[in-house]
Design a protein that fits this description.
By secondary structure, the chain is α+β, with helices and mostly antiparallel strands. Helices cover 23% and strands 24% of the residues. The chain has 2 domains: 202 residues, Beta Barrel (OB fold (Dihydrolipoamide Acetyltransferase, E2P)), CATH 2.40.50.90; 96 residues, no CATH class.
């Protein structure tokens, strides 16, 4: 049965809607797929399902991780000097477009990625099905009048999905589709459709993407330089960055696949679904003798297992 038709006929996954405000102040560093949110009723956080419980800050704030997308990293790592970024032009464009979509009129960014906006809060809502291992609420985010009252569940069909920033960023080519197993197939397909439109038009990351064609890595600058750094899937960037931190900044990638097999806890299946669960990204990463690394499958065809 056609999953797009299912969504239009009302066979849609229900998600919890929480109404509140997105707030950017006090040293916040929102990027293209993560930003802070405070519900109108802090008790609504207790309604979020799943084994990972939401623990808000004193003001009710929780970091929202946008469902179904992965934008270029503006800052990744625990602390200096180990914080790195991907090429900042596209990384900042994704972050700025997310904030402007939600209603922030001006966005000012310091060198340490701290952001100030005008206004510093805007009203909005999220649609969530749970939290990730880091305590972030994974959600679709939207603006304007929500489809139901806060604290209620609502089906997410194609019309509602198209009202979210998640869908918008994929349509602009400013994020990669990145999926986890709890997301229904029809929503994954709708998000993939948006991303494929951007890819066909060479928008955003797709005009420079090297994930499948490969990037020759001679130190972190090969991945981070704003002018010459390669644009690749952020998950691959994070694994490469962690590997180079572990080995040496200019290390050979000879052991990278072994590192992926032993150190990174990634489980996933490939589409079309064979039913086989793979563990370790070494199954979908190739490394050649000249230190060139590439993925063998596009992110749209990978469904990671939720932990």
């Amino acid at each position: 049965m056609n999953t797009h038709s299912d969504a239009r006929m009302g066979v849609a996954m229900a998600m919890l809607l929480i109404r509140g405000k997105f707030k950017v102040e006090g040293g916040a560093k929102p990027d293209g797929d993560t930003l802070p949110f405070i519900p109108d009723n802090v008790a609504d956080w207790k309604l979020v399902p799943g084994s990972e419980k939401i623990v808000p800050k004193a003001d009710g704030r929780v970091s929202i991780r946008l469902e179904g997308i992965d934008a270029l990293e503006t800052h990744y790592g625990e602390k200096k000097p180990h914080i790195e970024h991907q090429p900042r032009g596209l990384a900042h464009e994704a972050a700025d477009q997310l904030l402007k979509f939600l209603g922030f009129e001006t966005v000012l960014r310091d060198e340490d990625e701290t952001v100030a906006t005008t206004p510093d809060t805007v009203n909005g809502w999220i649609l969530t099905r749970g939290a990730d291992d880091y305590g972030r609420c994974v959600a679709f985010v939207g603006k304007g009048t929500p489809p139901v009252y806060s604290g209620y569940w609502t089906g997410v069909d194609d019309d509602l999905l198209e009202r979210t920033a998640n869908h918008r960023l994929l349509l602009l080519g400013l994020a990669y589709p990145t999926f986890y197993s709890g997301l229904p197939d029809y929503l994954r397909e709708l998000l993939t459709d948006a991303s494929e439109k951007a890819r066909a038009s060479s928008k955003g990351v797709w005009k420079a993407d090297k994930t499948l064609t490969g990037v020759t890595v001679h130190g972190m600058a090969s991945l981070t330089d704003d002018d010459t750094g390669a644009v690749i899937l952020p998950k691959l960037f994070r694994r490469l960055k962690d590997y180079l931190d572990f080995k040496a900044p200019d290390a050979s990638l000879d052991c990278f696949r072994a590192y992926l097999a032993g150190a990174a806890d990634d489980e996933y299946r490939l589409l079309p679904d064979s039913g086989k669960l793979l563990r370790g990204m070494h199954h979908i990463v190739e490394v050649t003798d000249d230190n060139t690394v590439r993925m063998t499958h596009p992110s749209r065809d990978i469904v990671f297992k939720e932990k």
